[in-house]
Write a structure and sequence with these properties.
Elements (H helix, E strand, L loop, with lengths): L5 H20 L4 H14 L4 H13 L3 H14 L4 H16 L3 H11 L7 H13 L5 H10 L5 H17 L3 H15 L4 H18 L2 H18 L7 H12 L3 H18 L2 H17 L3 H8 L7 H17 L3 H13 L3 H17 L3 H14 L5 H15 L2 H13 L3 H13 L6 H11 L2 H13 L12 H11 L4 H8 L3 H15 L4 H9 L4
Helix pairs in contact: 1-2, 2-3, 3-4, 3-5, 4-5, 5-6, 5-7, 6-7, 7-8, 7-9, 9-10, 9-11, 10-11, 11-12, 11-13, 13-14, 13-15, 14-15, 15-16, 15-17, 16-17, 17-18, 17-19, 18-19, 19-20, 19-21, 20-21, 21-22, 21-23, 22-23, 23-24, 24-25, 26-28, 26-29, 27-28
Length: 528
Amino acid sequence: MGHPHGRGRAAPEALPAVLRAAELTRWTAPLSAAHWYGKAAELSPQPGELLARQALAYWKGSRPALALNSAQRALAVLPAGRRRTRAAYTAVGAAHVMGWYEVALDVARRQIPKADDASALLAQQAVVSAEMGRPSRESARRAWEGLSDCPPQDRAITVGYLAIHALVRGDWAETQRAVDDLLTFAAALPPGARLASLESAAHVLAIAGLRSRAVEVLDQAEQIHRGLGWHDIAGQHVRTMAVIRRMGGEWARALEEIAVAGRALAEAGLLENLALLRNMEMDILLDQGRLEQAARVLADPPPGSALQQGMRCVLRARLALGRGDIAAARRELAHALAYEVPEVVHRALAIKVLVTGAAGDDAGCRTAASRLDERSANGTPRARLAADLAMGWAFRDRARTGAALEQARADGLPFEEAQARLTFGMLGDTSQFPRAHAIFNRLGAAPWAALSERRLREAGMVPEPAGRLTPVERRVIELVADGLSNPQIAEELHYSRKTVEVYLTRVYAKTGLRSRVELALAVERGEL
């Protein structure tokens, strides 16, 4: 039989070996590292710092419940100082992503006075408060003020949360300020921290509606990810990719990835990000007219923040509109607007334009569009694009419709491009209808495709699907996309220049495209 105090006697020898195992795996296998830090904490007479490290490893491994547990155990024994502060913001972050908003706020409230630097905790407190529809600007102001003296390991976390806070508050100027700071500072960080910073920046940029910029930042993150072997802390990467695919028109792929990621997020208890992923899923399903599937997703209640509850009201309004229940749609939008969360208000007003328009309430439609225009003046590019589309639709404003079309084409947003083209068609430029119809068809946006087809027929035009392009017309498109001029195409195909011009005229008529550049872009996006 062993010595009754054998465990204690073994500790001096075992502890260094266990710690080495934890340190060797902390960057490449965070869940393994969490296991070893836990073992080390059992062996150590002072487990606080090891529990804090375990919490951080669980966080990197997307296990928020375990991270919260370890962080709270660490907070119970750690003295004031750097390690305690880091354990505190790990605890707040873990509670937040699980949708445990009151727990997150309670930890932040208790730990801010004890922190050696409270900047990160104040920024976290600001985000959760804003999402709950509570006052948050004072916390954000104090976080911004503390940034110059913020420890390097906290600065990226602080600025990342400040960017999200500004996004929720609908303040694009402050969002840009935070993202620029985050990307500048990230360049000097170690690989793991730089990866997390880049993914945070990409997430904010995607939600803001800047698809191309978000993709560029994610490409930088992917290069670091290959070296580290881990990423997607708390499901942020899959959520960002869902937004990017939805904006870029990859709807089928987005739905496939959401189905897989949703199960993983649910198992991990990442309910905040799961709810946001479900919102993206419902956006696509509703635009495709798949109302019963959207209704089933809507039946699953979201976490209890004003942001999440308000977003669900907007989605229920969209479902009611799809079913033709204007009264129910109006009621849901009234509920959404009552939350007064700017991110929700922008979306609710954009839908109110459609609801009032469908009801034949032209005055209400113009009022909703004007309110959206006013509320989005300092909003995200996505909110301003929605305002341009709404003002073009409600006021028959060609300039605003043109601005929406230009932004959508520049950033590769096919659905918004088709909406702008449909509006132009309704303003008299019927040559835009075929292109709008083709894009809606490709996306599977059945209600919008039906509307554009109806407008086409009213204009005396017959829908020409891309599938009816002849082999020669397709070859001409390929050569245009390759950058060849008409004389070069004529030489390649052994046709006269006049014949090439005739084929191009037919291609423009069938596709609704109006220039060589538009043809090349359509080929690049896989639309032809």
